[in-house]
Amino acid sequence: MSDELDQLTDAEPIKDPGLPAHQHRPTDVDPAQELRAERQITGMFTVASLLLIGFCVAYIMIDKDQTFLGWSAMNFTLGATLGGALLLMGVGIIQWAKKLMGDDEMVELRHPAASTAEERAATLEDLNAGINESGFGRRPLIRRSLFLSMSFLALPTVIMLRDMGPLPYGHKNTVWKKGMRVVNDVAGTPIKPSDLQVGQLVNAEPAIMYEKDKDGEAVLHGTELLQEKSKAAVIVVRMKPEAITPSKGRENWGIDGILCYSKICTHVGCPISLWEQQTHHLLCPCHQSTFDLADNGKVVFGPAHRPLPQLPLALDSEGYLIAVSDFPEVVGPSYPELARDQKRLDDKS
């Protein structure tokens, strides 16, 4: 039995497994067709590059509200240019492989998983031979046009990064202004000091959400309303006045222990309202940045670099909480430039 296995192992493979004779492609035997195929592939890569440039132009120039045959003109153009570019690049690569790269049939014997040094060297030789047969080195026109189209493929990615959000320097201004009431963000009712108990936290927003113009129309509505609401969101907390240690110039920013801070974490902008009333700490649920609201919202733990922006408060003639001004600090996530500028302001003050 052992002798039979040895004979099977040492047996040579079938020399002719019945495959038909190899047929050469037209591009293998006709130089004119080879040149025509090379030009076609180069043209595909070049047109793909132009379509990618068109994608960037359409993204910048076409208004998002413009329509075409009932569709969004921007979406239609972006889809057509990017899809066409990717299609042409893919078809060009396939045509290159089918018409111009090596077309020889190869037989590879089975071997143990661990290759010998000689086999590894032979594999490297085969890889180099394949690179030579692909014509990558001797077809500079195709190679350069492919690299050109692939380099332009990065343009849409760079252009579309602008859609990821506002530039990373926070919101310098919000809709808060002098005399604007602080209202509950659920019911929209204005807040009086008597409505808050010591240790309580209320999520709030500016009353601009409910203001009307002279014609009775909402000042803000739709997407613009939601954007301004997210930037101006605040929390209102009440502590014992003796527990608060305001910094210089902020002695009158609260009302009988009631303070107001931005709801946007200064780390990466998460909404924050996890309140520890005994320690006066506010915890961000995203990355555990912790702020001491009794000490001007300074950071006591976590990756945040700036204190929470504080909104100065006062009372109107009816006894409701109102803003004295907009936030004096930038509202939003911290970035190295923003943290540096804030430190300079703190050092000056």
UniProtKB/TrEMBL annotation:
- Report the superkingdom from the record: Bacteria
Please state where this protein is localized.
Cell membrane
Tell me which GO cellular component terms the UniProt record holds: plasma membrane
From the UniProt entry, list the residue stretches annotated as the region Disordered.
Answer: 1-30
- Domain Rieske, by residue range, is 253-322
Residue stretches spanning the membrane: 41-62, 68-91
GO-annotated molecular function:
2 iron, 2 sulfur cluster binding; metal ion binding; monooxygenase activity; oxidoreductase activity, acting on paired donors, with incorporation or reduction of molecular oxygen
Entry keyword Coiled coil: no
User: How does the protein's chain sit in the membrane according to the entry?
Assistant: Multi-pass membrane protein
Gene3D superfamilies from the UniProt entry: Rieske [2Fe-2S] iron-sulphur domain
Keywords attached to this entry: 2Fe-2S, Cell membrane, Disulfide bond, Electron transport, Iron, Iron-sulfur, Membrane, Metal-binding, Oxidoreductase, Respiratory chain, Transmembrane, Transmembrane helix, Transport
For this protein, the record's SUPFAM superfamilies field holds: ISP domain
Cofactors named for this entry? [2Fe-2S] cluster
Q: Which Pfam families match?
A: QcrA_N, Rieske
Q: Does the keyword 4Fe-4S apply?
A: no
Q: Which family does it belong to?
A: Belongs to the Rieske iron-sulfur protein family.
**PANTHER family from the UniProt entry:** CYTOCHROME B-C1 COMPLEX SUBUNIT RIESKE, MITOCHONDRIAL
What's its job?
A: Iron-sulfur subunit of the cytochrome bc1 complex, an essential component of the respiratory electron transport chain required for ATP synthesis. The bc1 complex catalyzes the oxidation of menaquinol and the reduction of cytochrome c in the respiratory chain. The bc1 complex operates through a Q-cycle mechanism that couples electron transfer to generation of the proton gradient that drives ATP synthesis.
Q: What is this protein called?
A: Cytochrome bc1 complex Rieske iron-sulfur subunit
